[in-house]
Amino acid sequence: MSIIPHPIPYQGSKRKLAPAIHAFANNKKYDVLYEPFAGSAAFSLYAAHHGLADRYVLGDAFESLIDLWKLIINHPEKASSMYKKIWDGQKQDDFEYFNRIRSSFNEHRDPVHLLYLIVRCVKNAVRFNNAGNFSQSADKRRKGTRPETMEKQIYGASQLLKGRVDFFVGDFTECVSGASSRDLIYMDPPYQGTSQLNDKRYYEQLHRETLCDFLAEQNHKNVDYLLSYDGKTGEKIYGDDLPESLNLKRIYINAGRSTQATLVGKKEVTLESLYFSPSFSGVMDITNDAEYSFQGQIALSI
């Protein structure tokens, strides 16, 4: 398998950054890789393709998302056929079809309905209302991932993780409670620049104090972890620095031109932060707050 599968195309997915993150993580083989803010699970899929760990844990507070991952990985034929049936139900110029599927999902929480909504909604940008219901609109310019393409993505993800993954629904601290010094935790929570606001992108919010307390506990347990948490675009910086007492190292990975900036005629580059736990032995030669671009699997200092 030369191309990493990506069946759930969340906006903000770490699919493009996974090679760079893996280049820093690949200092040893781990027993378990935990991804407690799984989302599109882009890093776990990339890591599984490259054999970073023996087992994987996908966790998320959004139960329907984990139900979807269970279906994709354990029952790829069913997931593919159900998706095809929903996708084929679209009719030309029937823009209310999306709304009907959205209403059905919000009532019944069918995981394949969620998959269709994600691939068909505007910019794959998932949004929720105050009741926790999917609220994003359909992208009228396209019909979403074609069934034959989705089938390849689903079977590819299943091939990588079936029999090697456990699932968890709930708080991220409970998801990784069993992590030890032989394991790796990769976290991609909501940016701290948005997590304290009434932001509709996230099913649940994360308080900075909760995260800091959790990181301090992992430091005490000597657990390796990587954290994608904030960043900057042009002169705009998302959030405050994490406390020095956590003794973290941070680098910035060049994620390319900002989509939002491009829409308003600016040519600004987004730099995403990657934090390393103090236990992370593979980063001793990395300059704190250095900026990196990446090519293939190799991160390059810029």
Can you tag this structure with a few keywords?
single chain; alpha/beta; eleven-stranded mixed beta sheet; globular
Characterize the biggest β-sheet: 11 strands, mixed
Q: Regions with pLDDT < 50 over 5+ consecutive residues?
A: 192-198
Element pattern in H and E = HEHEHHHHHEHEHEEEEHEEE
Please provide the count of β strands.
11
Determine the number of helices (DSSP H or I, runs of at least 4 residues). Answer: 10
Q: What's the overall geometry?
A: globular
What percent of the residues sit in helical stretches (DSSP H or I)?
Answer: 25-40%
- End-to-end C-alpha gap: 31 Å
Topology, element by element:
Elements: H1 18-25, E1 30-35, H2 42-49, E2 53-60, H3 63-74, H4 76-88, H5 96-108, H6 111-120, H7 147-161, E3 165-169, H8 172-175, E4 184-187, H9 208-221, E5 224-227, E6 231-233, E7 236-238, E8 249-257, H10 259-263, E9 269-276, E10 290-295, E11 298-301
Parallel strand pairs: 1-2, 1-4, 2-3, 4-5, 8-10
Antiparallel strand pairs: 5-9, 6-7, 6-9, 8-9, 10-11
Tell me about this structure:
It is a single chain. The chain is of the alpha/beta class. The protein is built from ten helices and eleven strands. The chain has helices at residues 18-25, 42-49, 63-74, 76-88, 96-108, 111-120, 147-161, 172-175, 208-221, 259-263; strands spanning 30-35, 53-60, 165-169, 184-187, 224-227, 231-233, 236-238, 249-257, 269-276, 290-295, 298-301. Strands 1, 2, 3, 4, 5, 6, 7, 8, 9, 10 and 11 form an eleven-stranded mixed beta sheet that branches. Helix 2 (42-49) links the parallel strand 1 and strand 2.
